[in-house]
Amino acid sequence: MDVEKGNGRRVTVPVTVEFEDVDAYGIAHHAKLVAYLERARVRFLTELGLDLARTDLHLVLYDLEVRFKRTAALLDALEVTVGVSSADAVRLVLGYQIRRGGLLIARATTGLAFVDGATKAVVPIPEDVRRALG
User: Fold this and answer.
1) Which among 36, 7, 25 has a CA at the least distance from the CA of 98?
2) For a tag on the chain, would you pick the N or C end, based on fewer CB atoms within 10 A?
């Protein structure tokens, strides 16, 4: 999914690759790039108005796919852009791009489902979230 060309709402979060993010070669560890996706996802969902602290409803990650294109290094200034790739009655798929300047570092998608906090059963996407998604 190319979040830059989508018509839907998207959020871009700046991230700096810090010392604790790199391996012995000075390259950002792949797990840290996944953490950057999480930062962007949380910012995106809170800007939609979703209360992530709700105890009656949980947003659960069921799928993660990352395509690494280039490496990122210590003190690189990155931008993580996230937007909706698709949504159906119970699933929300977000698409991401991590860039350094104009260079694509990684492309990713995450699949999310809403789960009832008490029963732990998957539930439909709440109507308020569906409206916020457009």
Assistant:
1) 36
2) C
Residue 28: what residue type?
A: A
Q: Tell me, what amino acid is at 48?
A: L
pTM for the model stands at 0.90
> Using CA of residue 31, residue 96, residue 41, residue 11, what is the dihedral sign?
positive
Q: ∠ at Cα 31 (2, 115), nearest 5°? A: 70
> Which tens digit of pLDDT belongs to each residue from 89-108?
999 999 999 999 999 999 99
Q: What are 100's strand-pairing partners?
A: 103
Which of 129, 130, 114 lies closest to 62, judged by CA? 114
∠111-130-56 over CA atoms, to 5°?
75
Residue from 43, 132, 59 nearest 91 by CA: 59
Question: Which one, of 60, 58, 57, 50, lies nearest residue 128 by Cα?
Answer: 50
